[in-house]
Amino acid sequence: MYSLSQLMKSVRNPENVSTAIRNSVRKYSPHDVGVQGSYRTGNIGDRALGEIFTKTLKKNGRRAYLFDKNVEYSNAPNRILGGGGVLHDWYGTDHLQKRLNYVTSGERSFIIGVGAPGFHSEEARNLISETLPNVDLITVRDQRAKDNIQAVCDIEITVTACPVFLYDDPEAEVTDKTGVNFRPYFDEKEDMSDEILKNYFGYEDLHKATERYIANAQNICDQIENPVFIPFHSRDEEFARKHLDIPIFEHKFSVEKTLNRVSRMERMVTTRYHSLIFAAICGKPVLTLAYEPKVAAIADRLDVPAYKPHKEVPFEFTSVSNVSSIQNSAHQNLELLFEYLE
Fold this sequence. Notes:
By secondary structure, the chain is an alpha/beta fold. It folds into 2 domains: 129 residues, Rossmann fold; 145 residues, Rossmann fold, CATH 3.40.50. It contains 13 helices and 11 strands. It has a 6-stranded parallel β-sheet, sandwiched between helices. The chain has a 5-stranded parallel β-sheet with strand order 8-7-9-10-11. α1 crosses α2. The longest helix is centred in the last third of the chain and has 19 residues.
């Protein structure tokens, strides 16, 4: 057992306590909305999603709790699978099954603002077709996600936008720097089969694609003015320190700090999905590398070109468009959700 003071400390600052104490807090902390997703992976974009859900739910008078794993401790009648590219079977179907089990085990279930990269196995397709008709509301962040789901399950789905678009530009003082973000390369994913990587990412020769990607990253940093690297994950920083000879910000697992860093830049080279979204929020001209289809999809909505990171990349920055309309679409995620929660 844990003392009351330990549990209260956990409630105030759950990131700094043991898993055992945190689970006790989850079990005994009342919450009427449980939100499940990949919020504690070290990825700034995922953290931003978690913060948006908790902030907006609290503003709406709801008691929300974020879950990544250990969802068995949730007692919420309302269950949300919230944001991120969570509907896939890249790591097998067990991962997908646990997510769907959680969201459908409450009184009301919602899948909000998610991506659906696709379903490789027949088992995953059957799981989707059997489970999603039982979900009260499904919104997805792009048309491709809707198409991938409806290819195996003919249900009603609303295309919105990533909830991270609900952040505002902090309007920091702009410098003459060019922000740069590269994620690690393609053949690092030892937990994903080559077949899935090739089908989804579109790289026939993963080793050669990796080599060309690194060379492109180095060449871009050599060509652009005053580059500074902005990591969106600790692995981004590791990649930069290994391969790039430019100033590098230390990775901080903080949405506010990362968004402020982007806001201070004059322009942005973006590779990660949420580095492009942060740049768009801050109105920065971008040079976008689409390492996977979700990046190309949001670049298309922003009316900017996106280049394959292992192909020839021109050194041209393009101003983003349509940000207000995309933010309106992002708001629709919560508007539709709150209609059910009233």
